Amino acid sequence: MVNSLDVQAKAIKEPLEIIILDDGSTNSNITLELEILEKRPLVTIIRHAKNKGRLKSRLALANAAKFDWLLFLDADVLPCASNFLKQYFLETELSHPFVFGGVSYKDDVSPAKEFRLHWLYGKTREQRDVAVRQNNPYSTIVSANMCVQKSSFIQITSTNATSNYGTDIIFLEAIKQSGKNVKHIHNPVYHLGLEPIHRYLPKQIEALTTLKQQVEAGNLAAKERPLHKAYLSLNQFYMTAIFQNLYSLFSKYIMANLNSASPSIRCFDLFKLYHYSKLYN
């Protein structure tokens, strides 16, 4: 990714910097690669002793940045277009402090079975046309690829930073409550860092815990979260225990499906609803 950005930066001849945050990586290959990248004129490395979570890491990057606009990219993405940076530079001249380019998953790659659920979920729930995203600007935010005004980002993030997994919902709600303008454009990145299912599912459960904590703290509009709405519907009709018992009865088949080469997003929805409902037991 840095190579792609470096080439594009030289082409557009605009002042910029590339700041990379190492969030406590113990991988020797990553350490070596960062040492090589650090020798480049545009590149600065920030090192944390441990992983502080997405929001705290981004806040550290924002505070370290010299310029008024920030382009946040997750480490496991790659710009789709050769004019990726130029498109964002054009947006900084307008009045939208939050600009989201979108995310894409490669169609010509058939991931191994252990990565299939993450890939399918991304294509089904995260990869959306710009018109769809703009019609629902706050509920379709994917923060892996966004250009933001530094002052606005720090303002809404400094009071919401947490080290938990699944913090995009906090960030989304903070933008919405701030009333700041959001714009979606077609300037996607490929998401390449698929998680194997044995790591993906535990992270999803951790994200459910974060959701429950934020709902109970009053930081989220609970009825606007689809998963919490489904849980409330179960409770309203006294169906929670029945649903949990039915899920337990079929859990072996559901897990077999999620681990298969053709997982079902509906089964994944049931998996998340079950584990979310169990948090309230």
Helicity, in percent? 40-55%
Name of the CATH homologous superfamily of the largest domain? Spore Coat Polysaccharide Biosynthesis Protein SpsA, Chain A
Number of H/I helices: 12
Instruction: Indicate the mean pLDDT.
Output: 92
Query: What is the rounded distance between the termini?
Result: 44 Å
Which structural category do the helix and sheet elements fall into? alpha/beta
Bulk shape: globular
The CATH topology label of the largest domain is Spore Coat Polysaccharide Biosynthesis Protein SpsA, Chain A
Q: Rounded to an integer, what's the Rg over CA atoms? A: 20 Å
How many strand units?
9
Q: What is the topology, as strand order, of the major beta sheet?
A: 3-7-5-8
The biggest beta sheet reads: 4 strands, mixed
Low-confidence stretches: none
Beta-strand content = 5-15%
